[in-house]
Design goal:
The chain has about 230 residues and is an alpha/beta fold. The chain has a single domain, classed as Decaprenyl diphosphate synthase-like (Undecaprenyl pyrophosphate synthetase). The protein is about 45% helix and about 15% strand. The structure holds farnesyl diphosphate. Farnesyl diphosphate binds next to α1, α2 and α3.
């Protein structure tokens, strides 16, 4: 096990490649998402064990609604199932769960399940796992500006930051995207202003704790200057 000289406080991951993983195994795209969900559990448990404080995962974007109807329906059912089965795992690992994104677009039942898991894990003091659900960074920033104006506040970095869905989670230290794509896809644009970025060819269902450890090891060797010298 690594000694983690300098652990990133906040890791964010764009989980990409479920569809390609399924195709390469002769399976349906939905099987890829099922497998991807197993990786979510494995990576979350690992982050919790090694002492990461925040792990934000891009689970469903504002653009994902344009996928074929059956795939969207499958993802909704998978999320419902996920929260029901995962509550005990969160509690066992002292993981607090939080959702970010525009949740009102989801079914009432899914919204209730999400809220329920947030409430039942609110006392957990270990890792905070944040799932980005119907999330788009531009949408989040637009909503934040609206809040600042509604609250009659000045438009300052601090006020915008405090109005984001991620207000209490802090900036992202380490951003990872799997599957070989090198883009941010409208994910945490504000919060990644100074994050270190790593892109791996590994498809999300194959992404394992060992590779995360290797990336953290490389992260510790990068000199972060935050615009200074
Ligand atoms: C990207 O793969 C993945 C998604 C759009 C959804 C992410 C969902 C999961 C990891 C599983 C469900 C999550 C939870 C928390 C239960 P893709 O479909 O874009 O893959 P492709 O680019 O290879 O087609």
């Amino acid at each position: 096990m690594n000694s983690y000289k300098q652990l990133p406080n906040h890791i964010a991951i764009i989980m990409d490649g479920n569809g390609r993983w399924a195709k390469s195994h002769g399976l349906s795209r939905t099987a890829g998402h099922e497998e991807g969900a197993k990786t979510v559990r494995e990576i979350t448990t690992h982050c919790s064990k090694i002492g990461v404080k925040y792990l934000t995962l891009y689970a469903f974007s504002t653009e994902n609604w344009t996928r074929p109807k059956l795939e969207v329906e499958f993802l909704m059912k998978l999320l419902e199932r996920w929260f029901k089965s995962e509550l005990s795992i969160y509690l066992e690992n002292n993981v607090r769960f939080k959702a970010i994104g525009e949740l009102s677009k989801f079914s009432k039942s899914l919204q209730k399940t999400i809220k329920d898991v947030e409430e039942k894990t609110a006392h957990c003091t270990g890792l905070t796992q944040v799932l980005a659900l119907n999330y788009g960074s531009r949408d989040e920033i637009t909503r934040a500006f609206k809040k600042v104006i509604e609250n009659n506040l000045d438009i300052t970095e601090e006020n915008i930051d405090a109005s984001l869905d991620t207000a209490t989670f802090g900036d992202v230290d380490l951003l990872i995207r799997t599957s070989g794509e090198v883009r941010l896809s409208n994910f945490l644009l504000w919060q990644c202003a100074y994050s270190e970025m790593f892109f791996t060819d590994t498809l999300w269902p194959d992404f394992a704790p060992k590779e995360l450890d290797e990336i953290i090891e490389q992260f510790t060797k990068r000199e972060r200057r935050f615009g200074g010298i």
